[in-house]
Specification:
globular
Amino acid sequence: MIFVGDDWAEDSHQICVMDQAGKGLASVRLPEGMKGIAAFHELLAAHASDPAQVVVGIETDRGLWVGALLAAGYEVYGLNPKSVAAYRDRHRPGGGKSDRSDAKLLADLVRTDRHNHRPLAGDSPEVEAIKVLARTHQNLIWERKRHGNRLRSSLREYYPAALEAFDALTEREAVAVLAKAPDPGTGARLSRAQIRSALKAAGRQRNLEERAAQIQAGLRTTHLGAPSPVVAAFSATTSALVAIIAETNRQIEHLEQALSEHFEQHPDAAIYLSLPGIGGVTGARVLGELGDDPLRYSGAKSRRNYAGTSPLTIASGKGKSVIARHVRNHRLADALTWSAFASLSRSPGCRAFYDQRREKGDTHFQALRALANRLVGILDGCLRTRSLYDEDIAWGHRQTGTENIAA
């Protein structure tokens, strides 16, 4: 076996190769791309006859370079930078740091401590595509929220009437009306017909007259006014933010359609969608983050630990506490929490489990986390048996009182 540390940068890779005894065999900087990966393979061929004899440690789990390493048959560990930083402090308390020393540190880490880390999973290209789409879709939603917060902050400064008319500034109706009336004077002069036309263009089909009247009343409420130059400046910023939000909304819709198409074509999609509370978007997010490598998780406990839903026990001496996992995949945890919340109205078993946790003193979020943990275990069983969710199988045993609620 030989062990490789790869300290990567945008345009280069500092490589350190060592044997099982920790003796350095090579140290070289390689360029990113085809030329670099070809030189990497040539370098390792001089020390190993079989790619399976090569273990690589690198501080990322994605990218074309990592894909090439996996395709070559190397065992690759995508190491968390926080774990690497802790390992660095353990061996270099003085704080010294360089690309060469970091590459050596990564090689040493996979040589001595790889049993404490997880090798990169062999997920299919289909699930990798779903992961890319799901993450980009969620990123755009987060970005839209940031722009919405900026817009709300601006409107408070000069146009409070808009906040009277709209609760959600990122919705298409608010965007359509504010595009027509980015300042208080224009908003107060909008006729009901103009507002109705904007609502119709935004896609509203029902209660047009009633909603138009509500918006008109909100835009015509009396508030303190800002000086004309200030209003003009804020009006320009509002027009820009509204245009950005409108385009973001369109791109979110396009991505959601592409995400749905990719997710529905995956062989595991029917299993995910059979679980209560999981829809197309949340199902795609969960599948993308969990992956579809059948050998990635040793059991339900391993899947729960990766999902971050299982509790973490801290015991020292006579003290013992059970807390939530704060170091986790937050995208996955977010999707699972929303799915657990949605399941309360779709599954009697989920509702009963949640109510029992609440009766035992759990907060709302603690009960949801426990429910999400249970649903991850159920999902693991469904995936292993290739069967759809069944309410009676999932929760029937609880009616007999044979299982501890804390499980």
